[in-house]
Amino acid sequence: MVTKRSGATEPFSRDKVIAGVRKACQGRPVTDADLALLAQQVEETLRSTGAASIDAQEIGLAILDPLKELDQVAFMRFASVYQAWDSLDDFNRAIEELRG
């Protein structure tokens, strides 16, 4: 189960993970099969915690690493929205981490 910010709970959905990441991958060389694999990796990561319920925030965090491996531009897009970057310094830090 996923606990949303509002406190409501709902079942985990790979489709929601794919939909969220698909927006970041728009125009990038990422296939539906790539997105399905990413969603599977995220679900496996979350299930490995053994928790019966997980915060929606943790799903976003679980998406970041596999997305970074899949496509760095899509990662930057997703992370900038997910982590609410509000300055060029935020982007520069992320770019430096990717280069390192």
From TrEMBL:
UniProt-listed PROSITE patterns: ATP_CONE
GO biological process per UniProt: negative regulation of DNA-templated transcription
Assigned keywords, A-Z: ATP-binding, Nucleotide-binding
Signal peptide: none
GO molecular function: ATP binding; zinc ion binding
ATP-cone domain boundaries: 1-90
Protein name (record): Unannotated protein
Organism per entry: freshwater metagenome
Lineage, broadest ranks: unclassified sequences, metagenomes, ecological metagenomes
